[in-house]
Design brief:
Length: about 230
């Protein structure tokens, strides 16, 4: 994998996965009245920061790089004192992130070197992507700090593991059980049909056979090792 492809893949992972997951972990434990809470007029609430992240990503990536119309009102993101709850604000942010991710997925090394005019500045596409990633990271850190303050002891994104920071914010991985051969259930043991046994055996004995063997009349045991059917 070349460095341009790796840069884009890592940027997408931060923007579409790691940062939103960390923010969601914070929203999950916040009191309802904490989303728009401010210490003073010079401070921003978590609600303001979520609006601001949506506006920044849309202006720089969806519009600036992707070419969509830019109708951003940046000052309104900070002027708001009340509005949607945390869940609605997060859905708005995730919708914008998905649009930006589609744009990033279409880029390559050649397009990263192209020029764009964003916020009155002449920048390369690479600069725009880099800015959005670091900008998202900065405000994610602010949201985490506010969440730790408003919900003491309830935000712990990492744990110390022998001096190493082990992430705790990733959703648990659900391990899928391997698929079973036809006629075999996942929870039962192998078919216990003995060699030469016919289907006219007693119901009690046939209860340990797989469904296929119970219905068949072969003198050979089940080749797939099917599981016993329920009696």
């Amino acid at each position: 994998m070349d460095i341009a492809t790796e840069f884009l893949a890592q940027s997408r992972r931060y923007l579409a996965s790691e940062y939103p997951i960390k923010i969601q972990r914070c929203l999950d434990v916040l009191p309802e009245n904490a989303i728009w809470r401010r210490d003073d007029d010079a401070s921003n609430s978590i609600g303001n920061l979520l609006l601001h992240l949506s506006g920044n990503i849309r202006q720089w990536i969806v519009s600036g790089v992707g070419g969509a119309p830019d109708a951003r009102q940046r000052s309104a993101e900070f002027d708001a004192r009340d509005g949607e709850d945390g869940a609605a604000l997060m859905q708005r942010l995730l919708a914008t992130v998905r649009e930006a991710d589609d744009v990033l997925a279409s880029l390559d090394a050649k397009r990263l070197a192209e020029s764009r005019m964003i916020q009155g500045r002449n920048v390369r596409v690479l600069d725009a992507v880099y800015h959005v990633v670091e900008h998202f990271s900065m405000h994610t850190g602010q949201i985490i700090l506010l969440a730790k303050r408003f919900a003491p002891g309830r935000v712990q994104l990492y744990e110390d593991a022998g001096g190493l920071a082990r992430p705790r914010f990733w959703p648990p991985v659900r391990r899928r059980r391997p698929s079973s051969p036809p006629g075999r259930s996942r929870t039962a043991t192998r078919c216990r049909r003995p060699r030469g046994a016919r289907t006219r055996a007693s119901p009690r004995r046939r209860s340990s056979w797989c469904t296929a063997c119970r219905a068949g009349d072969s003198r050979r045991p089940c080749r797939a090792g099917s599981a016993p059917a329920r009696p």
